[in-house]
Write a structure and sequence with these properties.
Length: 236
């Protein structure tokens, strides 16, 4: 998906949302009742916009979900990352009473991801993040001192990052932030809403998507010296 920045979305003309929706949202689901007057505005919105949106975004997944007396709503599915949860923990003030975990959150967010990636591939044909490596080779850190020294900078940063996440997971605040983020994926429309209300709901979701949700945190090409790739256990 070719994304658009939040600034570019704000600067776009109001009607541009129809052509930009596929660059802000991974998908969209519209819930409504086919006969209830409470969903009349949603049905009007679909009649007015569906074909044009699909014409401008032919590969954009946009589906309708109908059932009798279903409350009108618009839903998408963002791929929230741990970074998003940590940022929410800080911005919401959920950790203001716990300076130790605030420090852990700041430490996690300040991790140099580019250096982390480069360090991960410091030893040819070996990936320290290979699934089940610790189970298959419990002593891999001590088995080859030269390899361990090459990977030491990566391991120290990665271990510190994992320790910070463990500290942040230790409490109800983490789950509360996860739930708060997922709640942003759905907009419940008021009964008797107008087509304009539906458009505003869609644009609101688009603004969240333009802030970066639903995109991968890091994209990189695997160096040529990495010849073995482990996608995970085939039995899972």
């Amino acid at each position: 998906m070719s994304t658009i920045s939040a600034a570019a979305l704000r600067a776009a003309p109001p009607e541009a949302w129809k052509s930009l929706i596929g660059r802000c949202l991974p998908k969209m689901r519209i819930f409504f009742c086919e006969v209830d007057e409470n969903s009349a505005g949603v049905r009007d919105w679909i009649n007015q916009n569906y074909h044009e949106v699909k014409l401008l975004n032919p590969s954009f997944p946009m589906k309708m979900r109908t059932a009798f007396e279903t409350p009108p709503a618009v839903l998408t599915e963002f791929r929230f990352r741990e970074d998003d949860v940590v940022n929410h923990l800080i911005s919401s003030g959920a950790l203001e009473h716990d300076p130790v975990r605030v420090a852990a959150a700041e430490s996690y967010l300040n991790t140099d991801r580019n250096a982390l990636i480069q360090g991960r591939f410091a030893w040819p044909k070996f990936d320290p993040e290979r699934p089940f490596l610790d189970e298959d080779e419990p002593d891999w850190r001590r088995a080859d001192p030269e390899r361990f020294e090459a990977l030491r900078p990566y391991l120290e940063v990665r271990d510190a990052e994992k320790a910070a996440l463990r500290a942040l997971h230790d409490g109800q605040e983490w789950d509360a932030s996860v739930n708060a983020l997922y709640a942003q994926q759905r907009v419940d429309l008021r009964p008797g809403c107008t087509p304009e209300d539906v458009t505003e709901a869609v644009r609101g979701l688009m603004k969240i998507g333009a802030d970066g949700y639903g995109t991968d945190l890091i994209e990189y090409e695997r160096p040529e010296n990495i010849t073995d790739y482990y996608p995970g256990a085939p039995e899972l």
